[in-house]
Request: fold
Amino acid sequence: MTDAGAHGASGTRDGPGDGGSPDPAAAGLTRAEMEAAALEGRQVAGRLEKATAVRLLNEGEVSVVGRLVTASNSTFFCLVQGPDPESGRSVAASVVYKPVRGERPLYDFPDGTLACREAAAYAFSEASGWEIIPPTVLRDGPFGEGMVQLWVEVDESVDLAELIQSDNAALRRMAVLDAVMNNADRKGGHLLPLPDGRVQGCDNGLCFAVEPKLRTVLWRWRGQPLTDEERTVLERLHEEMAGRLGDELVPLLTPAEVRATSRRIEALLEAGRLPRPDRNRPAIPWPPY
Ligand SMILES: Nc1ncnc2c1ncn2[C@@H]1O[C@H](COP(=O)(O)OP(=O)(O)OP(=O)(O)O)[C@@H](O)[C@H]1O
Ligand SMILES: [Mg+2]
Reply:
């Protein structure tokens, strides 16, 4: 994508990549070329297998190349670099890094960290099998612990307002998962339409509150009966809450938030429908894009 400028990306030229020195990196790019690409919102790694991406995110070396100055929290464009076990060569990828230290305190999310909530959201996305969220890990970085998420290049020709009104299967799945996660911030700008037609979502930190807070632009399917596939996935998620998924959530959320998430899955299955907006609280995030 080329609207990184619109996001207000500001580069750091005093970091580890201030020259054009060749670096053993993805696609034979020099360090300076990779930094420029990352700042423009391009993925320098090309297409990475998910497992490779997750390993790189967890184990690679993170270096900051710029900051999204318009973002409300401290959100950085970074490169993560490390050895690829397949080829033995060094690979690099563009990522977003949000250090916990840069998180603004939020009165309605007083517990834990947004980074942990983003990691918990990724765990849900993976457990669902729907791949709604790009690979996301919790790890140490240049400014301390935070979340690191693979940057995905979006199809800029997609009109987000049109997309939101379309009957897009990926968006519907996202709406179901957002209801489970109680996402309070599913705005248009957090939708990432991929060139292959899939849609993923970023900025999933405002999820998992105990109180109902669903705020989203994805109301198109409100009140519609769950499909068989959605039921099956919800039933599986509910089961996994008592197993591996539940274990993953323990260090990321409060016990009350974990319990409330299980209860939301039960309520969705019992209702058999996607939720409708609650008249007593805001249904749409502000600003919506
Ligand atoms: N993994 C990603 N891949 C591609 N684009 C991303 C990714 N993460 C974030 N972005 C882009 O960067 C923008 C800002 O990121 P994000 O919303 O996560 O930060 P923020 O600190 O919450 O900022 P804001 O207050 O503007 O929402 C997103 O709206 C999206 O356009
Ligand atoms: Mg955001």
